[in-house]
Design goal:
It contains 9 helices and 10 strands. The chain is an alpha/beta fold and 268 residues long. The chain has one domain (27-260): Alpha-Beta Barrel (TIM Barrel). Strands 1, 4, 5, 6, 7, 8, 9 and 10 form an 8-stranded parallel beta sheet that branches. A two-stranded parallel sheet has the order 2-3. The longest helix has 19 residues, at 161-179. It binds zinc ion (ZN). Zinc ion binds next to strand 5. The site of zinc ion has 5 residues, from strand 5.
Length: 268
Amino acid sequence: MIAIARSAVKSSASVIDKVRTPPTGVTILIYHRVGAGSGGEMDLPPEAFDIQLQWLNEQRQVITLDDAVDLVTGNTDRQVTGREVALTFDDGTEDWVDNVLPALERHHTPAAFYVATSFISQSSAAAPALSWSGLGELASSNLVTIGSHTHGHMLLDRLDADRTAQELDRSIDLLEEHTGSTPQHFAYPKAVLGSPAAEAAVRSRFRSAVIAGTRPNPLGTDPFRLHRSPIQASDDQRWFQKKAAGGMRAEDDLRRTANRLRYRGLES
Ligand SMILES: [Zn+2]
């Protein structure tokens, strides 16, 4: 029943795209896990991820997150063509080293990883955690950009300015200590923006920040409100290709309405 509802939402979103054509921009995809065996929507089978990487390299242009920021802010001589895609991963699980990095290396494809530093070495029921040495291995690849996802995966709209600053600085310090470089990019946990003060704290510490939204980022997009499109296990190749082309925004609009109710009263 849930699968049928999901597929109906995807079909409707695809029809809405035909009426409301997505703008030409850089598309940023969100992944979480690959082959972690959790059976969740944000845990892709390794074969599916492999096929996606192959398709992206044939049909699109996969760029680094830094290049994506340069393109949308006009900080480059190059123009946005609409073919550019950046890959991002959230949270911090062992499969990043076991499955994701080898796949990226096979396809010579760059990706960014937003780490919630409290998750490191703290395995959850959903998936074994990334270790500090795993993070170091990931960070040493020239295909990889490491970003911050707060320390405790905190929803910033529930924290005051001091707690927000602590959350950001703790994660920055730990990432510096274990990767040898300062993270330049930030992902809001669950795509929840904070208060204006929290957002100012993010803007003063990073080069960019990402939310959700499932739509492309045209030239002139605020680099601290970059939209991303989540790739789910239920996205077959057809839905994946539509998302990689910046489509399927209506699916996100519906999910956001549902999440607003779900996250009421939660902290992280
Ligand atoms: Zn997260």
